[in-house]
Amino acid sequence: ILPGAITRSLSDVEMERYREPYLDPPSRKPLWRWPNELPIAGEPADVVAAVTAYNQWLQESDIPKLLFHATPGAIMPAQMVDWCNSNLSNLETVDLGQGIHFLQEDHPHEIGAMLASWLRGLKPPPGSARHEARGSTGRPLLRRHHRCG
């Protein structure tokens, strides 16, 4: 699937990094097994049940959600993005432009910047540890650090 699922070319060094964990045949078993766990035509039943339950939870939950998508998008084409916008509350979508499947390979800096911006905009729920964590002086323990220059 890689490198055919990205829009840029990977260097030899980058491809070596991807191959590195799978140099001996036993280490490749997860790569062989994983496609057999994809929920297709109702099988495997336990995976279909988990995906169905998670889909339902996403539709009912007000938890903040961030969706990166691209065109043509291998598993998140425009119709699916439209469905998400219509059915998932508290969703922010980011159109990265051209991309297929491994969007982080084609748009690493855009994804990092947008994710950081989105996270900064989130408000912790009242009563959460992040909301209430304070030191003995009453000052918040969690601080946002910004690097300048």
Characterization of this structure:
Mean pLDDT is 86; it is low at 131-136 and 139-149. The protein has helices at 12-19, 29-33, 45-60, 78-87, 103-106, 108-121, 129-132, and strands at residues 65-72, 91-99. It starts with 11 loop residues before the first helix and ends in a 17-residue tail after the last helix. The radius of gyration is 20 Å and the shape is globular. 4% of the residues are buried. The chain contains 7 helices and 2 strands; from the N terminus they run αααβαβααα. 41% of the residues lie in helices and 11% in strands. The protein is an alpha+beta fold and 149 residues long. Helix 4 (78-87) links the parallel strand 1 and strand 2. The longest helix has 16 residues, at 45-60. The protein has a two-stranded parallel ribbon with strand order 1-2.
Radius of gyration: 20 Å
Cα shape:
globular
**Average pLDDT taken over every residue:** 86
Uncertain stretches of 5 or more adjacent residues: 131-136, 139-149
Q: Report the major sheet.
A: 2 strands, parallel
Strand percent estimate? 5-15%
Structural class, by secondary structure, is alpha+beta
Distinct helical segment count: 7
Give the H and E element order. Answer: HHHEHEHHH
The helicity comes to 40-55%
**C-alpha termini separation:** 39 Å
Strand line-up in the sheet with most strands: 1-2
Strand elements, count: 2
What is the topological layout?
Blueprint: H1 12-19, H2 29-33, H3 45-60, E1 65-72, H4 78-87, E2 91-99, H5 103-106, H6 108-121, H7 129-132
Parallel strand pairs: 1-2
